[in-house]
Amino acid sequence: MLVPWVIIFVSFAYLGLLFAIAYYADQRADAGRSVIASPYIYSLSLAVYATAWTFYGSVGRAAENGVGFLPIYIGPTLMIALWWIVMRKILRISKQNRITSLADFIASRYGKSALLGGVVTVIAVIGILPYISLQLKAVSASFTTVLQYPEIVVPASVGAAPLLGDTALWVALILAAFTILFGTRHLDAAEHHEGMVAAIAFESLVKLVAFLAVGVWVSWGLYSGFGDIFARVAANADLQPMLAPFGGVGGDYSSWIWLTILSMFAIMFLPRQFQVTVIENKDEGHLRKAIWLFPLYMLAINVFVLPIAFGGLLHFPGGADADSFVLTLPMSQKQELLALVVFIGGLSAATGMVIVETIALSTMVCNDLVMPVLLRMRALRLNERRDLTGLLLGIRRGAIVLILLLGYLYFKIAGEAYALVSIGLISFAAVAQFAPAALGGIFWKGGTRRGALAGLVSGFAVWFYTLLLPAFARSEWLPLGLLEHGPFGIELLRPLALFGVSGLDQITHAMVWSMLANAGAYVAVSLSRAPGVDEHRQATLFVDVFRRPAGSSGERLWRGTASAADLFNLLARFVGLRAAGEAFADYARLRGVERPEAQREADADLVHFVEKQLAGVIGAASAHIMLATVTKEEALTLDEVRAVLDEASQIVVYSHRLEQKSQELERATRELRAANERLTELDRMKDEFVSTVSHELRTPLTAIRSFTEILHDHPQLPAAERERFLGIVIKETERLTRLISQVLDVSRLESGRMEWHESLIDMREVIEDTAASTSQLFREREVRLERSLPARVPRVKADLDRIVQVVVNLLSNAVKFIEPGRGRVEIALEEEGGFLRVNVRDNGPGVPREHQDLIFEKFRQAGDRLTGKPQGSGLGLYISRRIVEHSGGRLWVESRPGEGACFSFTLPLVDEAALGKAALGKAA
Amino acid sequence: MATARKVLIADDEPNIVTSLEFLMRSCGYEVRVARDGEEALRLAEGFQPDVLLLDVMMPLCDGFEVCRRIRGNAAMRAVRILMLTAHGRGPQVERGLALGADVCLSKPFSNQDLIARVRGLLPPSP
Fold first, then answer.
1. B15 to chain A nearest CA, in Å?
2. The domain at A640-749 falls in which architecture?
C-alpha cells in the first residue's frame, strides 16, 4: 500500500476533501446558514494549535526529555483558565472595533498607529517563518520516510537528499496554491473565513483520530498496555532516568516555568490562534465550552505521547529519529494502513497550521504593512482608483506565496540545525514579544504607543540576537566564532550567554532577556511621556470595554466635516458598490435615518460607521488614514465648549421655571375643580328644593281644587258637610299662603336678598303680642300657655316682624304635637351674659336625639304617627334659625323623648348708652 | 244587583283623603283608606280593590314601592293602579308607568277627570 502513487493520490484526495468542506461551509455562510456557529466547531478549530510539531515533535521531545514535553501543553491549559477574563475582553474589544488581525488589535489600541501595525507584522512574519519551515520539514520528511518503505530510513540531513529538498519546495508551492484558493476568493469585510474554519475543525478531528490510532496500537498492539511499557522502561538502565519529571533529563525547574509561560503567550498571540480564537469567533458564549473542551483535546492528543516515545525507544535502541516514531513504528510492523493514516494525520496537522497561519499573516501584511505605505505614496494616486478590491486581493495572494517561499528558504538555511521542537520554540519566543504590549494594552490605560514600540523593538532585537543568529551560525551562514566569543570578541555579548548568564537552556535564556528588555522598555517609555488624545481615547475604549455599552465609543467627541457622498464612494472603492449600498441601508435602518448617503454634511455617527466598515477590510490604521483624506476633523475650541455649556445651563433654568408654572397650573386646576364640584352640588340642591317645593305647593292646591269642585258639582250637599268642606278649603288656602311666604323667605335668605328692617325691640312686648295672636290656636288645642317674664329687660336690635315670626313658629311647633288636654307650654325670658334668652318649653313627646339637628333643615319634620302627618312645611325652624343667626344669636333645642322639648334662642343685648353717643356724634 | 266596585285610597294627606273618599263614594264605589304604604299593601291584598288611588309621597313606603310590590304579586294582578303625581310629565310619570301603574294623574286634578279615569280602569260591567 505504501507505494508512491497511492500516497500522493491519497494526499491529494485528502486536500480535495478539505477544500470541499471549506467550499460547502462558505456556501452555507453566504446563504446565512452558518455551519460553524457551534461551540464544538469553535473548540475544535482552536486545536489548530497542535501542528505537525505535536504530531511528530512531541514524541521526539518526549524521547529526549521524558515528561519535559508537557509544559508546551500545560501552558495553554493554564492560560485557558484565565480566558474568561482575558480572552473575553479581547473578544469584546475586537468585535466592537472590528479588529481584523493581531497587528490591527495592537495598532488600534495605541491610537490606530500604522507604524506599530507594521512593526507587529514584520515581527510576526519573521517569527513565524521557522514554524512554517517546521511544517514543511515535517511533511517532506514524513513523505520521504514512507516512500522508503519497507526500509526504515530517516533522512539524516536536508542537503544530503536533494529529493527531500525538492519535496519541501513542492510542498510549499502546493500549500501556497491551496491557501490562495481557501482564503482569497473574496474580501470579507470582517475577515471571516467560514470555510477555512470548517476545514480546520475537520482536520483537528482527523489528526486526533490518527494519533489516537497509533497510540492505541503501540500501547496494546505492540506492547501490553501502559504498565508493560513503563515497567520495561524502568527495567532499562539507559532509559530509567527519563521517568523523572524534574532534574535530570526532564529539564530543570526554571526551564519548565519559562516553557509554560512561553506557551501561555503562544496560545494567545500566535497569529493563527488569534485568528481562530478572536477573529473567526461567532459568539462570545462559545468561550464557555471552549474553556473545557480545548484542554480535553489537549489531554487526548497527549495521552499517548509518552507510551509511543518509550515504545519507540524500546523498539529502536540506539535512536532512530524519534520525531518519526509515529510512522516508523507501524512501518516496522508492516502496519501499512496505519502508517498511511498516520501520514495523513501528520499532513493534516501541517496543512491546517500553514493555511491558517499564512492567511492570518497575509492579512496583516496587506492591511498593516503594504496598504498604509501604498496609501501614503501619492505617486500611485490610489485615491483616485475606483475599485481597490482587486489590488487588495492581489497583495494578499502575493504575500501568501512570499511567506511560504521564505519559509522554505529558512528551511534550507537553518532547517536541520535543530530538531523540530526547538524550531517551534523559537517562533513561540517571537510571538511572546507581543504579550507586554497586548496584555498591557487591555489592562493598563497608561500604555502608550511609544512604549509599545520601544518594547516590541527591544524584545524582537534580543530575540533575533539570542535565537535566530545562533541558528544561522550553527548552519554556518554566519561564523561560529560569534557564538563562542561574542561579536567583535565581546564576551559579555555572547548570544547564548548574555551578560554572563549561562547555564540556562537557549530558549529560557532568550525568554528571560527578551521579556526583560520588552516589558522594561514598554513600561519605562510609557511612563516617560503622556499619551496623545487619540491614544487615550483608544486606551479607554479598550480597557473599559466592559463598562461601556456598545456604540458609545467616542462618537460624540469627534466633530468634523465630511460629505456623505464622499464617504459612500470611499467605502465602495474598497468593498464594492453593492456591499457599500447594503452597509448604508443597514445604517439607515439601525439609526432610522433616510438616505444617509444624501446628507450634505455627514454627521459624526455616519463617519464613524464608515470608518468601522473600512477598518474591517483594510485595518484600523489604514481606515483612519483613508477617512482623513475625505474629512476634515475640527477640534472644539474653548469658546465653543463654553457656548455649549451656557446653552445647557440655560436650558436647565428654563425647564425649572416651566416646572414651577406647571405646578401653579395644577394648583389652580384643583381649586377650579373643587369650586365646580361645589357649584354642581348647589345646583343639585337647588333642583331638589324646587322639586320639593313644587310638591308641597300642589298638596294644598289639590285639596282646594277638589273641594271647590265638589262644592260646585254637588249643590245638594248637606249643610254640615258643606261647612266642613268649606272650612277645609279655607284652611288649605291659609296653608298654601303660609307655604308660599316661607318659600319666598327661604329663597330671599339664601340669595341674600332678604330685606331687614332692624330696630330696637322690647322682647316682653313681642312675647305678649305673640301670645295674644296665638291664643286661638292654644284654645283649640286645649293647651295652656304660661309666661315667665322679668319686669324689665334691655332691648335688642333686630327685625321686629322677623322675630315675631320666630316666636310664633316656636309656639305653634310647641302646640303641634302635644296631646290635647294635658298640654302645657311655658315661654320664658331671661338675661344671660351679653344676650337675651328666650325659652319655649313644652311637655310634648320631645325630640329624639337623632332628629335634633335634622329638624332645623329644610323640609324636615319630626313626624308622629299617632297624630298623623303634621301640618307644616318643614321650613319653619330653618327660617327661624336663619333669622336668629342673622341677628347675632343662636337657636337650638334641648329635649329628651318623653320629657318634652325646650327650644331656645338668644339675641345679643345692645349697649344703648354707646348707641346714643354714636347717634349724637353723627348728628353733630 | 251588580257587585259594587272597590276602590282603595292610599294617601297620607287627610284633606285629600276626605275629598277622594267623597268623590268615590258618590260614584257608588266601596272605599277603603290607607294612610301609609304598608297599610296600602295590606289592604290591597285583603280588600282586593278594582282600582287603587295611589299617592306618591307617603311615609314608610312610598307610592313607587307600593306599585312595584303590587305588580310583583301575582295575586293582585287584577288591581288597576292610578298614581297621583306632582307633575304631569317627567321622571315621576315615567317611573310610575315603568313600575306598572296604569294611569298617572298630576295634582291638582280635576274631579271630573279623576272620575272618568277611574271609570275607565274598572272592568266592564258583566
1. 6
2. Orthogonal Bundle (1.10)
